[in-house]
# Entry
Amino acid sequence: MTRIVTRALSTPARGLSALYGRRALRRWTHLVLGGALSMPYYLVGSIVLVSLGTEIGGPAFLGPPHVLALLAGLPLAAVTALFPPTRPLSVTAVRALCGIGDGDGTELADGPARSGAARGRTAVWFTLHLGVGAVTSGMTLAVVPFASVVLLLPLVPGLRTGPLGELYRDGGVWALVLSPLAGAAMLLLLAGCVALAGALLARAAPALLGPAPADRLAEAERRAADLAVRGRLARELHDSVGHALSAVTLQAVAARKVLDTDPGFVREALAAIEETTRRTVGELDAVLGVLRDTGERGTTAPAPTLETDLDGLLRRTRAGGALLDTTLDPGPHGFGALPPQVSREAYRIVQEALSNALRHAGAGVRVDLTVTVADGNLDITAHNPLPRSADTASRPGGGHGLRGIADRARLLGGRTESGAREDRWLLRVRLPLRAPR
# Structure
């Protein structure tokens, strides 16, 4: 019983909220804004009708001539709606005043219309907004004052003059009793018409201002580009910082073991730790500069390449206790002749291969590394002893390094091969020096 009474009492409140609530008033404001924007086109339409001999007179927005003037000006509004700023401004107004947009799951397009169909839909929306807004504004300007006077007629004797005074005298007491009801009914009817118009416009907005297929494609391409950048940054952070941490850890461990017996090796290990951390901080600053996107990328350290830092990478790896057997054959023109992107990605691949060998097989292992340039390809081969089962079991979450190597090779049109070969681990990468067609 209580629920029935509460529902019965809440129904009028819901109805008034639908007519005069916050959302209804904001949509009303949106319609009045459309009426204000329609005024220049209405004036142009009036000039056209007057030039054709049609008289424009009487109360504004009420007579047929005014409606004809508005209709005559709306084609010009459709033409001006083809300008690029129209859709962004319309979408902003719809999101702010109509209560619809991306926040409620309704998708609206951002930016100017890119295709003819999108511009046409924008012109339809703008014309519809101005036309309905003009009619709504005219009704508001006419009905609200008149209904207010009728509503206050019994309470303000000064209002009982003129045509309303004659109505009051002819109707007698019944006019005095019914006039407040008539005034309230007029206001409710006006609010209902405005709420209906606002709801219809809000329903039409996604269809007319929503993204076209070209917009969806552009957004998908933007998201794909963002994901590609994020993936590249993740690989850079993993390879650079991960290798640095592994190398520094092994160098520190090796230096601690011979601290009292081999001071020269300790000094070399500490120097390698200093160089590794300094370079890694510079590379980390470069990656964070891309994330910040402050336009200061030119001040960050450039990405290392085979030409600029392969010797340093091998030296720092040896300082960590690794035994490297290297075969380097850069071809007749040297590593400096490699395409910059190939040289950068190859450096990261070599870095990750050495890092994996040190991380999984431990210090003191012998790693055979071959980097050769021949027949239009850059070949990288690294093999080292397999890690002990205890070491492998103690390292959860592995596999990101090999996946990163495969991703780098695939982006350049290359291929990778990795796996156990008898008692050794083999990694082989081939990168073409020319982009695939």
Remarks:
- The chain has a mean pLDDT of 78.
- Residues 31 and 133 are 4 Å apart (CA to CA).
- DSSP finds 13 helices and five strands in the chain.
